[in-house]
Amino acid sequence: MYSYDTQKAIVDIAIGQLYILKSASDLRNPHTRQSDKSTIKDKVLLVEGKSDVKFWKRIVSDTLFIDDVKSFADSICALLNKPTNNKRAVIGICEALSVIDQSRSDSQSTFEKWEINGVIDRDFDEQTFGAVSSLHVTDTHDLETLLLYTDSELLQRLIDAKSYGILITNEQADSAKRLSLQMGLIRMALRSLPRELKNWFYLPQRRKQNSYRNQERIDYALLNDHGNFDLMQFLRATNNLQTLQDRKDDQSLKEIERLIIMAPVLKRKIGSDGKWSDSKIYDDELTIWRIINGHDYLRFLRSLVPGAEKAYKSDYQADNALEFDLIQSYDTSRLIKTRLYCSMQQSNLFD
Predict the structure, then answer these.
(1) Rounded to whole angstroms, how far apart are CA atoms 245 and 233?
(2) Largest CB tally within 10 Å, which of 29, 83, 149, 173?
(3) Averaged over 207-222, what is the pLDDT?
(4) How far apart are the first and last CA of the chain?
(5) Domain extents for the chain?
(6) What is the pTM of this model?
């Protein structure tokens, strides 16, 4: 399935849940010499989801209509071996095409006319894919945290624009940041769990097409223990999402808590009693925003700010709407200072 917006001259193609955003090209410039046209490629940007498409439409211009877009989609599909998610699909395509570019010399190659790049969230797994020059990674954990990290006035500007009449204090923003940072560290620690426990923990999320649909059912206010993330409450909330046959008793949950606390990433950050250290976890802002999950931050903020339910509703669709509002309110001039922008600029993705 694909669509073409004649007003904005941008093509979006959906292959399953993989979104492709077409970017700028000069192939149809009437002043381009015929002999030069064969050396100019269409630039195509692969992204992970709808919010990414919306964001990059604000950044990357487009002037070209692709009249053979279906063959492009079919060719891309042939490269994929049932990717587990959108991110793996983008990585797989860029890695596969990188090999093709190096090994094929015939000018009639299926991908001869396209210069394909991908943008992905850093998450916690930047080391799980090879160094591919066409693959560009966010400086921070994800797109939401990149926007928040580079534009410190973004949230309040968004709220003012929506006339919600809400004031986010520095204390509330700092508290949401600390809680989501601690939760991010717990997410990292989960990787050290034995496989069977790791599988148990993520089982409810795998039952849904989108993992955040289940996590949205967790009341983030209950995870806040006087300004610190409550690990046991999180385990209990996760346990409640399990089917009856998969639920653990209290003793098993305490053992899982003990195993998580023992993870190297939590050393000197949380005690054996589950209490967090009072000292500052990290000084470097970039390190902090690489650990924080944007969804976690916004949900903690929603739980901390009185009246915030007007802006931050509890259902998943409203969560998406908030992401879109953040994207629309973002000061795009802030992006220029990021490593992501520099990486994409080296691939000539900007005018």
Answers:
(1) 20
(2) 149
(3) 63
(4) 28
(5) 2-143+334-346, 169-304
(6) 0.82
